[in-house]
Amino acid sequence: MSGHSKWNNIQGRKNAQDAKRGKIFQKLSREIYMAAKASGPNPDDNPALRLVMDKAKAANMPNDNVERAIKKATSAGEGENYDEIVYEGYGPGGVAILVHTLTDNRNRTATNVRVAFTRNGGNLGETGSVSYMFDRKGYIAIERAGLAVDEDTMLEDVIEAGAEDMLTSPEVFEIYTAPEDFTTVRDQLEQDGFKLAQAELTMVPQTTVVLDDDQKAQLEQLVDKLEDDDDVSDVYTSLED
Protein backbone atom coordinates (compact mmCIF):
# COMPACT_ATOMS: atom_id res chain seq x y z
CA MET A 1 0.00 0.00 0.00
CA SER A 2 2.67 2.46 1.03
CA GLY A 3 3.64 4.65 -1.89
CA HIS A 4 0.51 3.95 -3.95
CA SER A 5 -1.39 7.11 -4.81
CA LYS A 6 -4.98 6.90 -6.01
CA TRP A 7 -5.46 10.64 -6.43
CA ASN A 8 -4.13 10.99 -9.99
CA ASN A 9 -6.36 8.15 -11.12
CA ILE A 10 -9.39 9.66 -9.38
CA GLN A 11 -8.81 13.05 -10.96
CA GLY A 12 -8.00 11.58 -14.35
CA ARG A 13 -11.29 9.68 -14.53
CA LYS A 14 -13.51 12.43 -13.13
CA ASN A 15 -14.43 13.99 -16.47
CA ALA A 16 -15.26 10.60 -17.98
CA GLN A 17 -17.51 9.82 -15.03
CA ASP A 18 -19.22 13.21 -15.28
CA ALA A 19 -20.23 12.28 -18.82
CA LYS A 20 -21.83 9.07 -17.47
CA ARG A 21 -23.63 10.70 -14.55
CA GLY A 22 -27.05 9.21 -15.33
CA LYS A 23 -25.62 5.69 -15.50
CA ILE A 24 -23.68 6.23 -12.27
CA PHE A 25 -26.85 7.35 -10.47
CA GLN A 26 -28.61 4.21 -11.69
CA LYS A 27 -25.84 2.01 -10.27
CA LEU A 28 -25.78 3.89 -6.98
CA SER A 29 -29.55 3.52 -6.66
CA ARG A 30 -29.12 -0.23 -6.96
CA GLU A 31 -26.43 -0.25 -4.25
CA ILE A 32 -28.54 1.91 -1.95
CA TYR A 33 -31.53 -0.36 -2.52
CA MET A 34 -29.54 -3.48 -1.61
CA ALA A 35 -27.96 -1.93 1.49
CA ALA A 36 -31.29 -0.61 2.80
CA LYS A 37 -33.10 -3.86 2.04
CA ALA A 38 -30.46 -5.90 3.85
CA SER A 39 -30.09 -3.89 7.06
CA GLY A 40 -32.71 -1.15 7.21
CA PRO A 41 -33.19 2.44 6.04
CA ASN A 42 -31.36 4.27 8.84
CA PRO A 43 -27.72 5.02 7.91
CA ASP A 44 -26.85 5.57 11.58
CA ASP A 45 -27.63 1.90 12.23
CA ASN A 46 -26.56 0.60 8.82
CA PRO A 47 -22.86 1.21 8.02
CA ALA A 48 -23.19 -0.25 4.52
CA LEU A 49 -25.97 2.20 3.69
CA ARG A 50 -23.98 5.09 5.17
CA LEU A 51 -21.04 4.21 2.93
CA VAL A 52 -23.04 4.10 -0.28
CA MET A 53 -24.91 7.28 0.68
CA ASP A 54 -21.55 8.99 1.12
CA LYS A 55 -20.56 7.62 -2.27
CA ALA A 56 -23.76 9.04 -3.76
CA LYS A 57 -23.10 12.43 -2.17
CA ALA A 58 -19.58 12.49 -3.64
CA ALA A 59 -21.12 11.83 -7.06
CA ASN A 60 -23.59 14.72 -6.56
CA MET A 61 -26.54 12.37 -6.73
CA PRO A 62 -29.78 14.22 -5.88
CA ASN A 63 -31.29 13.45 -2.47
CA ASP A 64 -34.58 12.58 -4.14
CA ASN A 65 -32.88 9.69 -5.95
CA VAL A 66 -31.39 8.42 -2.70
CA GLU A 67 -34.69 8.63 -0.82
CA ARG A 68 -36.53 6.93 -3.68
CA ALA A 69 -34.13 3.97 -3.62
CA ILE A 70 -34.46 3.61 0.16
CA LYS A 71 -38.25 3.83 -0.01
CA LYS A 72 -38.33 1.19 -2.72
CA ALA A 73 -36.18 -1.12 -0.58
CA THR A 74 -38.41 -0.77 2.48
CA SER A 75 -41.77 -1.00 0.76
CA ALA A 76 -43.87 -4.15 1.04
CA GLY A 77 -43.14 -7.11 -1.20
CA GLU A 78 -40.15 -9.14 -2.25
CA GLY A 79 -38.78 -6.54 -4.66
CA GLU A 80 -35.63 -7.12 -6.69
CA ASN A 81 -32.76 -9.45 -5.86
CA TYR A 82 -29.16 -8.85 -6.85
CA ASP A 83 -26.03 -10.96 -6.47
CA GLU A 84 -22.60 -9.52 -5.75
CA ILE A 85 -20.04 -11.18 -8.04
CA VAL A 86 -16.34 -10.36 -8.41
CA TYR A 87 -14.56 -11.10 -11.69
CA GLU A 88 -10.78 -11.26 -11.92
CA GLY A 89 -8.42 -11.00 -14.84
CA TYR A 90 -5.50 -9.33 -16.55
CA GLY A 91 -5.36 -6.34 -18.85
CA PRO A 92 -2.70 -5.15 -21.31
CA GLY A 93 0.84 -5.48 -19.99
CA GLY A 94 -0.23 -7.90 -17.26
CA VAL A 95 -2.14 -5.36 -15.18
CA ALA A 96 -4.31 -7.12 -12.59
CA ILE A 97 -8.01 -6.20 -12.70
CA LEU A 98 -10.85 -6.74 -10.21
CA VAL A 99 -14.42 -6.12 -11.38
CA HIS A 100 -17.12 -5.83 -8.70
CA THR A 101 -20.65 -6.35 -9.99
CA LEU A 102 -24.20 -6.27 -8.67
CA THR A 103 -26.48 -8.24 -10.96
CA ASP A 104 -29.90 -9.81 -11.32
CA ASN A 105 -28.71 -11.94 -14.26
CA ARG A 106 -25.45 -13.82 -13.77
CA ASN A 107 -25.28 -15.12 -17.34
CA ARG A 108 -25.70 -11.66 -18.86
CA THR A 109 -23.06 -10.13 -16.61
CA ALA A 110 -20.53 -12.93 -17.13
CA THR A 111 -20.91 -12.68 -20.90
CA ASN A 112 -20.55 -8.89 -20.95
CA VAL A 113 -17.48 -8.91 -18.71
CA ARG A 114 -15.80 -11.65 -20.75
CA VAL A 115 -16.44 -9.82 -24.03
CA ALA A 116 -15.04 -6.57 -22.60
CA PHE A 117 -11.83 -8.35 -21.59
CA THR A 118 -11.30 -10.33 -24.79
CA ARG A 119 -12.00 -7.41 -27.14
CA ASN A 120 -9.72 -4.97 -25.33
CA GLY A 121 -6.46 -6.81 -24.81
CA GLY A 122 -7.37 -8.59 -21.59
CA ASN A 123 -7.94 -12.09 -20.28
CA LEU A 124 -10.60 -13.10 -17.77
CA GLY A 125 -9.13 -15.32 -15.05
CA GLU A 126 -10.39 -17.79 -12.49
CA THR A 127 -11.64 -16.82 -9.04
CA GLY A 128 -8.62 -16.07 -6.87
CA SER A 129 -6.26 -15.44 -9.79
CA VAL A 130 -5.57 -11.79 -8.89
CA SER A 131 -7.61 -10.94 -5.79
CA TYR A 132 -4.68 -11.90 -3.54
CA MET A 133 -2.72 -9.01 -5.11
CA PHE A 134 -5.08 -6.42 -3.59
CA ASP A 135 -5.81 -5.32 -0.02
CA ARG A 136 -9.13 -3.86 1.09
CA LYS A 137 -8.51 -0.45 2.64
CA GLY A 138 -10.29 2.68 3.68
CA TYR A 139 -9.19 5.65 1.60
CA ILE A 140 -9.62 9.34 2.48
CA ALA A 141 -8.31 12.29 0.47
CA ILE A 142 -8.02 15.82 1.83
CA GLU A 143 -6.99 18.54 -0.62
CA ARG A 144 -4.28 20.86 0.63
CA ALA A 145 -5.43 24.05 -1.11
CA GLY A 146 -6.34 26.58 1.59
CA LEU A 147 -5.42 24.13 4.35
CA ALA A 148 -3.12 25.65 6.99
CA VAL A 149 -1.72 22.31 8.21
CA ASP A 150 1.79 21.03 7.55
CA GLU A 151 2.61 17.40 6.80
CA ASP A 152 3.91 16.52 10.28
CA THR A 153 0.85 17.93 12.04
CA MET A 154 -1.49 16.24 9.60
CA LEU A 155 0.26 12.91 10.10
CA GLU A 156 -0.13 13.23 13.87
CA ASP A 157 -3.83 13.97 13.43
CA VAL A 158 -4.56 11.03 11.15
CA ILE A 159 -2.58 8.52 13.22
CA GLU A 160 -4.36 9.72 16.35
CA ALA A 161 -7.66 9.22 14.51
CA GLY A 162 -6.69 5.59 13.88
CA ALA A 163 -5.30 5.63 10.32
CA GLU A 164 -2.53 3.30 9.14
CA ASP A 165 -0.63 5.45 6.67
CA MET A 166 -0.59 8.78 4.85
CA LEU A 167 0.86 9.84 1.52
CA THR A 168 1.59 13.49 0.82
CA SER A 169 1.80 15.37 -2.46
CA PRO A 170 1.61 19.11 -3.18
CA GLU A 171 -2.10 18.70 -3.97
CA VAL A 172 -3.47 16.27 -1.42
CA PHE A 173 -3.11 14.22 1.76
CA GLU A 174 -4.06 10.59 1.06
CA ILE A 175 -4.97 8.59 4.15
CA TYR A 176 -5.28 4.81 4.33
CA THR A 177 -7.02 2.84 7.06
CA ALA A 178 -7.88 -0.73 7.92
CA PRO A 179 -11.39 -1.38 6.56
CA GLU A 180 -12.85 -1.87 10.03
CA ASP A 181 -11.42 1.50 11.16
CA PHE A 182 -12.56 3.50 8.12
CA THR A 183 -15.78 4.98 9.52
CA THR A 184 -14.13 5.89 12.83
CA VAL A 185 -11.25 7.68 11.10
CA ARG A 186 -13.53 9.40 8.61
CA ASP A 187 -15.90 10.64 11.30
CA GLN A 188 -13.04 11.84 13.51
CA LEU A 189 -11.41 13.82 10.70
CA GLU A 190 -14.75 15.42 9.86
CA GLN A 191 -15.22 16.31 13.54
CA ASP A 192 -11.73 17.84 13.48
CA GLY A 193 -12.97 20.19 10.76
CA PHE A 194 -11.35 18.67 7.70
CA LYS A 195 -13.25 18.67 4.41
CA LEU A 196 -12.94 15.26 2.76
CA ALA A 197 -12.53 15.31 -1.02
CA GLN A 198 -12.88 11.52 -1.20
CA ALA A 199 -13.81 8.86 1.35
CA GLU A 200 -14.43 5.25 0.40
CA LEU A 201 -13.62 1.62 0.94
CA THR A 202 -11.44 0.49 -1.93
CA MET A 203 -9.07 -2.21 -3.18
CA VAL A 204 -5.40 -1.18 -3.16
CA PRO A 205 -2.84 -3.14 -5.22
CA GLN A 206 0.15 -4.48 -3.30
CA THR A 207 2.37 -3.83 -6.32
CA THR A 208 1.77 -1.76 -9.44
CA VAL A 209 2.59 -2.14 -13.13
CA VAL A 210 4.01 0.55 -15.42
CA LEU A 211 2.61 0.60 -18.96
CA ASP A 212 3.73 2.38 -22.11
CA ASP A 213 1.37 4.88 -23.72
CA ASP A 214 -0.21 2.37 -26.13
CA GLN A 215 -0.83 -0.21 -23.41
CA LYS A 216 -2.24 2.46 -21.08
CA ALA A 217 -4.65 3.64 -23.79
CA GLN A 218 -5.82 0.07 -24.35
CA LEU A 219 -6.29 -0.46 -20.60
CA GLU A 220 -8.31 2.74 -20.33
CA GLN A 221 -10.54 1.48 -23.14
CA LEU A 222 -11.03 -1.83 -21.33
CA VAL A 223 -11.90 -0.10 -18.05
CA ASP A 224 -14.30 2.23 -19.87
CA LYS A 225 -16.09 -0.73 -21.46
CA LEU A 226 -16.42 -2.44 -18.08
CA GLU A 227 -17.66 0.69 -16.31
CA ASP A 228 -20.21 1.25 -19.08
CA ASP A 229 -21.92 -2.00 -18.12
CA ASP A 230 -24.99 -1.42 -15.95
CA ASP A 231 -24.09 -4.36 -13.70
CA VAL A 232 -20.53 -3.20 -12.91
CA SER A 233 -20.17 -1.27 -9.65
CA ASP A 234 -16.39 -0.79 -9.40
CA VAL A 235 -13.24 -1.61 -11.36
CA TYR A 236 -9.83 -1.77 -9.68
CA THR A 237 -6.46 -2.18 -11.43
CA SER A 238 -2.80 -2.47 -10.49
CA LEU A 239 -1.76 0.27 -12.94
CA GLU A 240 0.97 2.59 -11.69
CA ASP A 241 -0.80 5.98 -11.60
How are the secondary structure elements laid out?
Layout: H1 7-19, H2 21-39, H3 47-58, H4 63-74, E1 83-90, E2 96-103, H5 106-118, E3 123-124, E4 134-143, H6 151-161, E5 165-168, E6 172-177, H7 182-191, E7 198-205, H8 213-228, E8 232-237
Antiparallel strand pairs: 1-2, 1-3, 2-8, 4-6, 4-7, 5-6
Helix pairs in contact: 2-3, 2-4
Task: Please provide a written account of the structure.
The chain has 241 residues and is of the alpha+beta class. Helices cover 44% and strands 22% of the residues. The chain contains 8 helices and 8 strands. It has helices spanning 7-19, 21-39, 47-58, 63-74, 106-118, 151-161, 182-191, 213-228; strands at 83-90, 96-103, 123-124, 134-143, 165-168, 172-177, 198-205, 232-237. The strands form 2 sheets. It has a 4-stranded antiparallel sheet. A 4-stranded antiparallel sheet has the order 5-6-4-7. A hairpin with a 3-residue loop joins strand 5 (165-168) and strand 6 (172-177). Helix 2 (21-39) runs antiparallel to helix 3 and helix 2 packs parallel to helix 4 (63-74). It is globular. The mean pLDDT is 90.
